[in-house]
């Protein structure tokens, strides 16, 4: 017979690394929720201009601004912590040499920056008005 030690449900509150890990995992809920919101907007767009205008009207309230700000902060936290943990689980070797963790994380940040710059250029810098 083996002994199984009982672990309290609050085990993740006992040490800061555990807490930060659980917070990062819970931010996935915010990411999924925002994806659901974007799918709802696409659905409203498929139903016509009036339905889409009504859906966009929901985003102009102070509560919506607050939720979007909180969502942005959660997604940024999720992304930054994910990029920082990536070198620990994704180990590359060039020949006999291990690629430094800063290079792996830096490549992720560079890709994020390039993608953000491209999206900003497409939305803001094309010189055309919608």
Short description:
The protein is mainly alpha-helical and 130 residues long. The chain has helices at residues 16-46, 49-57, 62-89, 101-124, and strands at residues 93-94, 97-98.
Q: Give the helix level as a range of percent.
A: over 70%
Overall geometric form: flat
> How much β-strand is present in the residues?
under 5%
The number of distinct structural domains comes to 2
CATH class of the largest domain: Mainly Alpha
Q: How would you state the average pLDDT, rounded? A: 90
First-residue to last-residue Cα separation:
71 Å
CATH homology-level superfamily of the largest domain: Fumarate reductase/succinate dehydrogenase, transmembrane subunit
Order of helices and strands: HHHEEH
Q: Which secondary structure elements does this structure contain, and how are they paired or packed?
A:
Blueprint (H helix, E strand, L loop, with lengths): L15 H31 L2 H9 L4 H28 L3 E2 L2 E2 L2 H24 L6
Antiparallel strand pairs: 1-2
How would you describe this protein?
The structure is a single chain. The protein has helices spanning 16-46, 49-57, 62-89, 101-124, and strands at residues 93-94, 97-98. It is mostly helical and 130 residues long. The chain folds into 2 domains: 12-78, 3 helical TM bundles of succinate and fumarate reductases (Up-down Bundle), CATH 1.20.1300; 90-130. The chain has a two-stranded antiparallel sheet with strand order 1-2. Helix 1 packs antiparallel against helix 2 (49-57), helix 1 packs across helix 3 (62-89) and helix 3 packs antiparallel against helix 4 (101-124). The model has no long low-confidence stretch (mean pLDDT 90).
């Amino acid at each position: 017979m083996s002994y199984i030690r009982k672990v309290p449900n609050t085990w993740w509150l006992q040490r800061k690394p555990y807490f930060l890990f659980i917070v990062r995992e819970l931010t996935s809920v915010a990411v999924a929720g925002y994806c659901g919101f974007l799918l709802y907007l696409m659905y409203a767009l498929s139903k016509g201009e009036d339905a889409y205008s009504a859906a966009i009207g929901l985003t102009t309230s102070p509560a919506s601004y607050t939720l979007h700000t909180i969502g942005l902060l959660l997604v940024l936290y999720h992304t930054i912590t994910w990029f920082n943990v990536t070198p620990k689980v994704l180990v590359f070797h060039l020949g006999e040499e291990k690629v430094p963790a800063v290079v792996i994380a830096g490549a992720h940040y560079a890709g994020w920056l390039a993608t953000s710059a491209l999206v900003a250029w497409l939305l803001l810098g094309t010189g055309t008005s919608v």
